[in-house]
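Input.
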Amino acid sequence: MANIATKRAEQKARIDKYPPLEDDPKPGEHGILLSDQITYFATHHHMIEPFDARNLKPAGYELTVGDEYFMSGEFLDLTDTLTILPFEVAVIKTGEILRLPRFMIARWNIRVTHAYEGLLWVGGPQVDPGYSGHLFCPIYNLSDKPVTLSRGETLALMDFQRTTVFDKRKTEEELKRYPHPPRRLILQDYDIRDFQSALFTRAGRKIEEFGESIRNLETRFITFTQISFAMFAIFLTLLTIYTKVGLNLIETSASLVGSGLVALSVMTFLMAGFTHLQYRLTRLIPDRYGAMMSKRAIEARRFLRFYWLWGFYAMLIVSIAIGALVYTVVDPYFEMIRKNVVGDASHAPSIPVQQIEGRLVAAESAAQQARAEIERLKSEVDTLRGAARTDR
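Output.
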């Protein structure tokens, strides 16, 4: 606590050394200051301290990373570098003290280079006239990879603009001027913990909503895939039953259709495996893993989806080919078989009648022969009887 009080006293002494400039020594038109006027106010009236001409821009000045920051619930000193983890918030003190004149306003924002890295500026852009002291930059890492900043590295770009002047005839209560010295002098004077909690709550809610939308989309995709597989399995079963008789009768067609059905079964199995792997990958939460692993998971998901589509197209082509084969080969054979069976059935009654007629003719011929033999035997008997009577 004593250390904080000492820091506060030292900061107050530095601010009080040069009070805010009340009157414009070089009155000009209202507008944004260019580099020459920024240099003048910085070197002659201590508007930026320390001032480094290398950070000067045509119409602004780049502020740098200071020696103190707040992150992960702790106030920390910065000697070399700091790393902001994904979805982490950090409040960084600038390396410069700003002393704005009473007739000048400043606006600042994070450099575009850092914005491209995924850092999001979550503070207000305006610095009021008459402000004196360090600035504190609240930054949120919205990317999926850590971002490292170094002490003294340029962090934010600030521009300066002249305003209208205060009416000196009015009282301090009427003017609403920025207090000097400021009420909050050091980083510990800010209630950052509440800010961090609120920021995480809002950002977390947005991330959860986005993640829920992605999960719903993936669930719908997987459900559609499962339904498609079920319908295809039913179609495959019906096709197998429909072609069973034809496959038994036609050896060449049976070979082609059988190979096609095996290919369809293999592709169905592979597509089911791809879908299962995609489902497992969608359950991964990239925030819990490193950037490289998350990237690999996304690449694997794209790879599986690519081959799933190609497998689906191949399966569709094979299905159409088998359907065409069944339609052009099996159906005509079914028709031919039906005609042959019906023709054999129509001739079936004539076969036993002819056999019976042949047997009847043969029986009649045999009966005639038997009757002739009987007549011959009767004639021989009569002859023998006549001979017997003569002998007597």
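The chain has a mean pLDDT of 76.
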